[in-house]
């Protein structure tokens, strides 16, 4: 029913909307008072008990979209899981358990067995009168105009013997690493020796431990120069006076011998 009171301000109030129970079907308004019982419209059923699981499932769904490296290290107890996408490269160095016939295994260059600290024989220089040469192989090897692995072949090889085969001089060399005595390096060394001696030269190589090489001689010379330089500083009167009067010291590693051509070889 409409309100019986006038609207404030003397203006007629807008007709009020019928109440829900007044808009009922005729069957509900006829009969006894029991038939006019108002039934509330059905409410949408809510399940509060499932709200928490849904909220927990949303982060789980969001985690499914994250990269694997985010979810694997999300806490301190996570452990990285192996992924096939980040497996070792097929051409990476194989482990020691790799099969010998593995096509992807990397073959390391052959090396001679570890040489003893002291040579089992004394160093002897044998002159070669036919070549007008004193037989000092380290000096000849250090002076040859070679570069790269060909130079390493000359510097790291030890002369076993030098002989004549007809008109050709034969240099038998022992090399500690297989890759240094490749045909290309041997050919370059042969050309350099031919130019050095002015006659045909043949170079024969073998794999083995070495001691008396141009590289070893140069290293021994550098060590001797370093010891001499340190002794010179230690016996210098001015340096000793600074140590006594001012409690000074020589910074380790700052004593460097003068550079010479022999030391640089």
TrEMBL record:
- Record protein name field: DNA polymerase III subunit gamma/tau
Q: What is the lineage of its organism?
A: Bacteria, Pseudomonadati, Pseudomonadota, Betaproteobacteria, Burkholderiales
Q: Where is the composition biased (Low complexity)?
A: 1-16, 48-61
Region Disordered: start-end pairs: 1-68, 81-101
Name the InterPro entries for this protein: PolIII_tau_V_sf
């Amino acid at each position: 029913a409409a309100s019986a009171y006038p609207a404030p301000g003397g203006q007629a109030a807008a007709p009020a909307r019928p109440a829900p129970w007044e808009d009922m079907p005729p069957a509900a308004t006829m009969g006894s008072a029991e038939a006019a019982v108002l039934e509330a419209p059905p409410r949408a059923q809510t399940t509060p008990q499932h709200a928490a699981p849904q909220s927990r499932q949303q982060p789980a769904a969001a985690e499914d979209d994250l990269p694997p490296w985010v979810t694997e290290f999300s806490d301190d107890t996570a452990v990285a899981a192996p992924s096939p996408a980040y497996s070792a490269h097929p051409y990476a160095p194989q482990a020691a358990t790799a099969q010998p016939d593995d096509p992807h295994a990397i073959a390391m260059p052959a090396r001679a067995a570890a040489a003893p600290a002291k040579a089992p024989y004394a160093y002897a220089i044998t002159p070669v009168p036919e070549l007008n040469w004193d037989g000092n192989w380290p000096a000849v090897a250090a002076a040859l105009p070679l570069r790269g692995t060909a130079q390493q072949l000359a510097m790291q090889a030890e002369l076993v013997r030098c002989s004549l085969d007809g008109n050709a001089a034969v240099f038998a060399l022992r090399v500690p690493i297989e890759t240094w005595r490749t045909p290309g390096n041997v050919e370059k060394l042969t050309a350099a020796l031919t130019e050095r001696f002015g006659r045909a030269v043949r170079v024969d190589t073998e794999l083995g431990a070495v001691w008396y090489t141009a590289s070893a001689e140069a290293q021994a010379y550098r060590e001797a120069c370093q010891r001499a330089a340190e002794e010179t500083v230690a016996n210098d009167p001015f340096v000793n006076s600074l140590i006594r009067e001012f409690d000074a010291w020589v910074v380790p590693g700052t004593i460097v011998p003068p550079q010479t051509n022999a030391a640089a070889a």
